[in-house]
């Protein structure tokens, strides 16, 4: 293929950030830190390996996803508790915050809501940063392991991919069929997963998660939330997923209530201000 004469000049143009976040509403981390100093654990849900479970978090409460027993990756879905059409928007969260999220960044909801659903308030893996391969932790680039892609690439019927685990858990929670639950399952936050894009081919890669038992990722629930978490069949995702080969461990979800004074002061973020008329 022949290059145009000014090919190098075109490549040399400096990139600009698509979404400068200087005008993005900033979470009050000092307020969250004060609230974190006085939390009472009110509930917990243990997610079995190669399976998923649902949990609810009232607005103003905190929840932690915690590593127990062994290095394990989790796939997280979030919905507005009383309206499943408002759900986590992985793609827009990625566009706003980048490929991986950590303390101070948020999980944003789908259109037409586009508001923060949860803010990350603590990340014991925050030290990891970016490694020499461009890898980092807690990505919003992977979608979730699923039986359809597995069928396409490897053939066979595997029923414990995160997509199926999340579908079963939601079906059970909502007391509906898997056919009714499946359309609600969406692209995840890959909790504890260490991923990136290869520099040469730009392909999505994974490597063994740096997570160890007692590590946790903590969130503040901006609105009433329904969550579903899958303990990925890939375990620490060091070699493969979508199979029963990897060592796999449970994950613990803990729900914390802050004190009454804090709960009285909280404000739930409003739905996005666009009028929805789309020029009509
Ligand atoms: Zn998975």
Low-confidence sequence ranges:
none
Ligand roster? zinc ion
Portion of residues within helices: 10-25%
* Radius of gyration, whole Å: 20 Å
The helix/strand order is: HHEEEEEHEEEHHHEEEEEH
- Any idea what the shape is? globular
Count of domain modules: 1
- Mean pLDDT, all residues: 95
Quick one: biggest sheet? 7 strands, antiparallel
Structural class: alpha+beta
Tally of alpha and pi helices: 7
Assembly state here? single chain
Please give the number of β-strands: 13
Strand portion: 25-35%
What distance lies between the first and last C-alpha atoms, to the nearest angstrom?
45 Å
Q: What would you note in describing this structure?
A:
The radius of gyration is 20 Å and the shape is globular. The protein is of the alpha+beta class and 280 residues long. It has one domain (42-265). Strands 2, 4, 5, 8, 9, 10 and 12 form a seven-stranded antiparallel sheet that branches. Strands 1-13-3-11-7-6 form a six-stranded antiparallel sheet. 19% of the residues lie in helices and 29% in strands. It has seven helices and 13 strands. A hairpin with a 6-residue loop joins strand 9 and strand 10. The chain binds zinc ion. Zinc ion binds next to loops.
């Amino acid at each position: 293929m022949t290059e145009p004469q000014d090919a190098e000049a075109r490549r040399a143009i400096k990139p600009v950030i698509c979404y400068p976040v200087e005008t993005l509403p900033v979470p009050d981390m000092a307020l969250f830190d004060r609230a974190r100093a006085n939390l009472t654990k009110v509930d917990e849900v243990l997610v079995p390996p190669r399976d998923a479970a649902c949990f609810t978090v009232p607005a103003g409460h905190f929840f932690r996803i915690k590593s127990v027993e062994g290095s394990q990756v989790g796939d997280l879905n979030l919905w507005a508790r009383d309206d499943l059409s408002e759900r986590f928007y992985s793609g827009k969260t990625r566009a706003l915050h980048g490929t991986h999220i950590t303390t101070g960044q948020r999980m944003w909801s789908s259109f037409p809501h586009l508001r923060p659903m949860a803010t990350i308030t603590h990340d014991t893996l925050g030290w990891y940063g970016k490694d020499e391969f461009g890898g980092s932790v807690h990505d919003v680039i992977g979608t979730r392991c699923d039986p359809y892609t597995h069928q396409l690439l490897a053939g066979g019927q595997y029923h414990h991919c995160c997509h199926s685990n999340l579908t079963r858990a939601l079906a059970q929670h909502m007391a509906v069929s898997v056919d009714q639950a499946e359309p609600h399952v969406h692209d995840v936050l890959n909790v504890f997963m260490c991923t990136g894009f290869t520099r040469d081919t730009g392909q999505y890669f994974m490597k063994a998660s740096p997570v160890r038992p007692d590590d946790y990722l903590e969130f503040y629930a901006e609105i009433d939330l329904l969550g579903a978490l899958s303990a990925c069949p890939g375990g620490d995702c060091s070699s493969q997923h979508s199979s029963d080969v990897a060592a796999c461990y449970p994950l613990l979800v803990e729900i914390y209530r802050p004190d009454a004074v804090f709960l009285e002061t909280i404000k739930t973020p409003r739905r996005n201000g666009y009028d929805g008329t789309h020029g009509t």
